[in-house]
Design goal:
Length: 141
């Protein structure tokens, strides 16, 4: 049997995932990280993007969208504390496209630095959701 690591994904709404995996991929601020069992301890911020969990054993990889948060890695446990976490197949493409359009409009007509920063964050989040939807669509097709 292959070595596994326990993975918990938690958001403000509650636990999204808890289980064993052979490999975890997450969008850290310094780039995507791959985490295997017995990984060196690590704590880093997450940027909006896709978390992938490979349970091994020929099972289909699980995909989640996170809007940011923190990643904590211990040798036998990975904990993702996300601002927002959604199973990729539950993402709403129409809502993400609308959020992207609103953020782009806000960027075009920005008045204050705060509004500009907020619009940039919303645009990054919507774009990350759309990328996750597109990856899931390619895998199914």
């Amino acid at each position: 049997m292959a070595m596994t690591i326990h993975v918990d994904i938690v958001s403000a709404e509650g636990a999204i995932h808890s289980g064993l995996a052979e490999m975890v991929y997450a969008p850290a601020v310094m780039g995507e990280v791959g985490i295997a069992p017995r990984h060196t301890p690590l704590v880093t911020r997450l940027q909006p993007g896709e978390v992938r969990i490979d349970e091994g054993g020929g099972k289909e990889m699980q995909h989640f969208y996170v809007s940011g948060g923190m990643l904590e890695v211990q040798p036998h446990v990975v904990t993702i504390l996300a601002d927002t976490a959604i199973r990729a197949h539950d993402l709403d493409e129409a809502a993400a496209l609308e959020a992207k359009r609103r953020a782009e409009d806000a960027l075009a007509g920005q008045v204050a630095d705060f509004e500009y920063a907020k619009a940039q964050a919303e645009l990054a989040e919507a774009a990350a959701q759309l990328r996750a939807i597109e990856k899931l669509r390619k895998m199914k097709g």
